[in-house]
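$ fold --in a.seq
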Amino acid sequence: MRTLVLAALAASICIVGLGCASAEEAFVTNQLSDDLMVVDLATSRSVATIPIGGKPAGIAVSPDGRFAYVTSPDAKAVTVVDAATRQVAARIEVGGGPLGIAVAPDGRTVYVADWYAAAVRVIDAASRRLTASISVGASPSGLAVTPDGKLLLSADRDDDSVSVVATATGERKASIKVGTRPFGVTIDAEGKRAYTANVGSDDVSVIDIAEGREIARVPVGMRPYAVALTLGRGFVTDQYGGTVSVFDLASLKPVKRINVGDYPEGINATADGKRVIVACWESNTLSIIDAAELKVIGEVKTGDGPRAFGAFLRKTE
């Protein structure tokens, strides 16, 4: 496992030709240490650790960067964290087994996947109250909302499908068959395609959202967990492989596998698209990948059991 002095790491990010890192933070759920860690990606330093409890797993930073919403399956709750003050602002009891979480583009609605109830809970962000429940497939995990806010996609692991929900009505419009045991789901910036990491079939399903169907599958490493998109490529965490699989979004051809920390799970691209940040559960690290050069350029120590399942990066300027 790599060990890097933090000061040297910060310098190395500037040396590789990307320029110095932009002002951005990673909000990392550390499930086994029951907390949320905030990492300044410009300096690769931890700047806060916030107790959460209940084995935090899912994370969604609001589009305006003001709040981080954290699911705690054991506590059956969602914790709202003020991103600027690093303080817990509220705890919302949702019941069941909250796991995946997503915030609507306008920031007004929070969606929470209830693993046990085959449902997505709907929270009004202003009042911080549950307002509805939407029926989806068995064991919903990853959630994503289209850029226009009109559709919610739920990766329903034990149904081998993705539910498509009209957010205005809460109606489940379609159930799209994908690979085996889909977990993370990611939608592209245009809202045209979605990508699911299929844990059971070691591939990624490519979905045409308008047509409501799977159009391709891309082979990746062992036990893929989640997908990030940047610079015309898909980056997929392979839990059992200790790698990130990279494929071309146009041709859907595999490009490379990058060795990262042990048991990678959560993955996000930075706002400028130049780096990919990977939470590695077993090695308790964040691996930092140069998205153009396709190589690891740094590593940051985290708490115990980082998952960061969701949108865990926050732009600060």
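$ fold --in b.seq
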Amino acid sequence: MTGRVSGKVALITGGASGIGRGCAERLAEEGAIVVITDLQDDKGAELAAAITAKGGKAQYHHHDVTSEEAWIKVAAAIKADHGRLDILVNNAGIGISGSVLDMALSDFQRQVAINLDGVFLGVKHSIPVMRLSGQGGSIINMSSVAGLKGSAILAGYCATKGGVRLFTKAVAMECAGAKDGIRVNSVHPGIIETPIWDSIVGTGEPGDNAHPPRPIVLDAMSQDAVPLGVKGYPLDIANGVLWLASDESRYVTGAELVIDGGLSVK
């Protein structure tokens, strides 16, 4: 531990598994007090306990990111417990693949609710808590390579992640104009070994973001599509999030951090 975010309070949504879990672990290693939220209560509580057992500071809250009432409660709990919020990682998300002609409206709307509405609500209810300290903060919105380029089987997912990209830039300008010291950036992962790929590549139930990934499928996809020829891991994304969360990136706002092994360049 080198304390790159020592003493900072970080909220990570969808933090019980995948990229969110990697971010929670990495920020805790660097001294942050991490507040993990998710719908996977057993995994979330287990992660908070594991971080605490290693000497870190963590707590878990059940949290549906599509519910404004739930966001109000989480923001109030952070204010009551810590008196401040320095880092928000809007990570919770799902991916549902398939032709736009076959996709149910309910599935499209579910993706929008989690991937885009959840980010909006996170920003709306976290900024007031961030402003309490007068020391600014860092908001990191998890987009995707799918927010930069289209995919024939991911129209709904691309729509939400593209929305996150431009929403991030707009909020960055709003905070810059307010001179509140809050920086807002987006992260764009490529093929990362996480549970979300089960639904995207059709190895899980539609809309399911809970099953283990299929490494063999991702390895083959990466060899074919990624210039570096390999898939990424949650730690690869977490290291980028750590940089954006730290004061090392103090002059960065409204930016896109692409972590994809060159996938978006092709």
